[in-house]
Amino acid sequence: MKSIVLTGIKPTGTPHIGNYVGAIKQAIEMSENSEYDNFYFIADYHSLNALKTSEELKTYTKELACTWLACGLNPEKVVFYRQSRIPETTELCWILMNVTPKGLMDRAHAYKASVQANLEKGADADDGVNMGLYNYPILMAADILLFNTKFVPVGQDQKQHVEMARDIAKYFNKKYGYTFVVPQEKIQEESATLLGLDGRKMSKSYGNQIPLFCDEGTLKKLISSIKTDSSLPTEPKSTNCVLFDYIKVFGSPEKINEMEKRFAEGISWADAKKELFEMANEYIKPMREKYNYYMEHFDEVESLLKLGEEKARVIAKETLERARKAVGVID
Ligand code: ADP
Ligand code: TRP
Fold it and tell me: Which numeric CATH code is attached to 4-193+298-327?
C-alpha cells in the first residue's frame, strides 16, 4: 500500500512567491514520487477566521485553485478538492472534539499569540477570539485523519498543528481501539523562509510580497523596488541579500554561478535587478500563461475539483463510518 501524503493551503490572499517556494513547489515534487498517493486541498473553512467578506473567500479560492494547477498539479495523479465539499470533515471534527483536551488547544501557538496580544494592550484575554480560531487545530486533525494520512508536508509554522493531529489520533485509538493512521509532519528544511521586498519574511500580512502571477510590468516594478545597500555601481556586492535569494529561486545552476562572479566583480544594482527580472519572468511565464487560461476557463477547474471531490468522498465516507462505529453511534 502506498503512503498517503496530504496537505492544504488556506485561501486567505493572492498566492505569492513565498507560498510557491515554501509550500506549492515541494508538494508538487512529492506528487511526482510514485511511492505516494497525494491529497491536496483548499482549506476554505480554515480561512473563514481571517477573511472579512464572502467575496474575498470566492476570489482567493479561485486564485488558489488556478495556482495549484498552473504550478503543475496533475489532477489525474493527485486528489484535488475543496475542504468544504467534504462534509465528512466537519462531522469527524465534532467526534474528535470529544477526545481533545481543552488544555491542548490552550497551548496552540495561534491562540496563545492572540491572548498575549490582548494582555499586552490591557484587553480581556479572549477578546476577539472566536471558536473557529480556538478549534482550528481540531478541524485540521479531521482533514488529516479522514484520509489515512501518513505524511503532511508543511512549513515550520504548522509543525505544532500536525503534532496535535497526531496526539488526537492517539487519544482516539487508545479510547476506542485502532481507528486512525497516526500522521507525521514532513518539514522541508531547505525551503527556508523567503524574505519579502523589505527584508522581512514575505507575507501578505506585511504587504511585502511579489504575487506569483502578477503581470510582467508589475513584476518588473516590484523587482526594481527591492531594497539594496548603498554600495556604488562598480563596487563588489554581497550575495547575502534578498535580491540574490530570488536569483537562487529562479536561476539555473549555471546562471547562479555566473551571477555570483558578477556580484564579486561589482555588477550595478540596476543591472542585477534587470537580470533577476529576466530570470524570474522566464521561469514564471509558462505557469502564468496556464494560470491566466484557468482563470478565464474556471468551469474546467470546477469540473476537475468536482472529480477530485467525488474521489475524496469515497475514502472520507469509509473513514467516517469507521469512526462512527468506533464511538457507537452506528453498529
Ligand atoms: P502568508 O504569510 O502570506 O499569510 P500563509 O500563512 O497563508 O502565508 O502560508 C501558506 C503556505 O506558504 C504555508 O505552507 C507557509 O509555510 C508557506 N509560506 C508563506 N510565506 C512563506 C515564505 N515567505 N517563505 C516560505 N514559505 C512561505
Ligand atoms: N493550517 C494550514 C496553514 O495555515 C492549512 C491546513 C489546513 C492544512 N488543513 C491542513 C495543512 C491539513 C496541512 C494539512 O497553512
Answer: 3.40.50.620
Q: Is 16 helix (H, G, I), strand (E, B) or coil?
A: strand
Instruction: Give yes or no for a contact between 11 and 63, defined as CB atoms under 8 angstroms apart.
Output: yes
| Ligand 2, atom 14, residue with closest C-alpha | 7
The architecture in CATH of the region 213-292 reads Orthogonal Bundle (1.10)
pLDDT for residue 188 is more than 80: no
| Residue 327 identity | V
C-alpha cell at position 307: 472529480
Q: How far apart are alpha carbons 11 and 239 in whole angstroms?
A: 33
Residue with cell 505516494: 36
pLDDT of residue 1: 86
Ligand 1 atom with minimal separation from the 194 CA: 24
3-state secondary structure of 66: helix
Whether 204 is catalytic is: yes
Contacts of 231 (CB under 8 A, 6+ apart): 237, 269
Is this structure's pTM higher than 0.90? yes
Q: Which of 43-47, 85-89, 156-160 has the lowest mean pLDDT?
A: 156-160
The Cα–Cα gap between 263 and 238 comes to 7
CATH 1.10.240.10 domain residues, the chain: 213-292
Closest CA to 270 of 317, 316, 223: 223
Ligand 1 site-directed mutation target among 17, 19, 109, 160, most atoms within 8 Å of CB: 19
Of 140, 169, 165, 130, nearest in space to 9 by CA: 140
Give 175 Cα–ligand 1 centroid separation in angstroms.
36
> Residue 190: pLDDT band by 50, 70, 90 thresholds?
low
Residue with cell 519572468: 281
DSSP notation for 143-175: HHHTTT-SEEEE-GGGHHHHHHHHHHHHHHHHH
Q: Is the CB of residue 28 below 6 angstroms from any atom belonging to ligand 1?
A: no
Rounded to the nearest integer, the mean pLDDT of the chain is 96
Whether the CB-CB separation of 9 and 43 falls below 8 Å is answered with: yes
Selection from 303, 249, 293 nearest residue 67 by Cα: 293
